[in-house]
């Protein structure tokens, strides 16, 4: 581990937990102290949660834009699919800490470093699902649309993308949950997101902070997944009709 990524370890001397203040639960380092959560929500947990949401949104939006562009190109030129899958697959297999290690000398201990790493982990998932969705549109549907006089742009936006939407949203769901999880590791680069209270709790062996921050991370993933499911249903009402 380089000096850059070992910063969180180097900055912190051996930590002696400060449990002398607060409720008896906090002083005894109980399993979960609701009073600590109430006292530290606005100052610690809420800011970390908002930072985590920002990290996730930026990574997923940028990753979606890049993957969609690549998927469209590969959809038109089939030979592009293999090299894109190989390149994005290589990025996906790099351990997160190793990728941060490679990026820090270039972009420093910045949010840019964290976002580049997070975006790279979305590309394979999003690209494969987007391409699978576009490729899965039946040929007879395309032929019928062309026979009706649709231009290539109209064919894409009015026929192919709506039919590919379930596969695309499935990729978005996986990529979003993946980024929410990996964003906790970004604490080794920037002191932002839910990884910060998790790391602090691990250093102090403070159970409440660890459980609260971890629970917020899990809850965020569940809520994001549910919202994407609702978005898919709103954008493709015909799928509900077909099931019923």
Automatic annotation (TrEMBL):
It is found in: Cell membrane; Membrane. It comes from the Bacteria. Keywords: Membrane, Transmembrane, Transmembrane helix, Transport. GO terms for biological process: glycine betaine transport; transmembrane transport. Residues 49-228 form the ABC transmembrane type-1 domain. It is a multi-pass membrane protein. Its main location: membrane. The chain crosses the membrane at residues 53-73, 80-104, 116-141, 161-190, 210-231. GO terms for cellular component: plasma membrane. Belongs to the binding-protein-dependent transport system permease family. This is Osmoprotectant transport system permease protein. It comes from Conexibacter arvalis.
């Amino acid at each position: 581990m380089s000096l850059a990524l070992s910063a969180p370890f180097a900055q912190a001397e051996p930590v002696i937990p400060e449990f002398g203040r607060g409720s008896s639960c906090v002083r005894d380092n109980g399993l979960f102290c609701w009073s600590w959560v109430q006292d530290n929500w606005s100052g610690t947990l809420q800011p970390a949660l908002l930072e985590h949401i920002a990290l996730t949104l930026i990574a997923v939006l940028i990753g979606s834009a890049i993957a969609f562009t690549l998927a469209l190109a590969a959809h038109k030129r089939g030979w592009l699919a293999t090299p894109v899958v190989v390149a994005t697959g290589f990025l996906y297999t790099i351990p997160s800490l190793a990728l941060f290690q490679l990026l820090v000398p270039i972009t420093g201990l910045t949010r840019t470093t964290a976002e580049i790493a997070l975006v790279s982990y979305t590309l394979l998932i999003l690209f494969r699902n987007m391409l699978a969705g576009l490729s899965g549109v039946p040929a007879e549907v395309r032929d019928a649309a062309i026979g009706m006089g649709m231009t290539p742009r109209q064919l894409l936006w009015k026929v192919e993308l709506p039919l590919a939407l379930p596969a695309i949203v499935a990729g978005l769901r996986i990529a979003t949950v993946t980024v929410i999880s990996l964003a906790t590791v970004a604490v080794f680069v920037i002191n932002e997101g839910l990884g910060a209270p998790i790391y602090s709790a691990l250093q102090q062996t403070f159970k409440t902070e660890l459980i609260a921050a971890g629970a917020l991370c899990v809850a965020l993933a569940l809520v994001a997944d549910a919202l994407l499911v609702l978005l898919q249903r709103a954008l493709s009402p015909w799928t509900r009709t077909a099931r019923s």
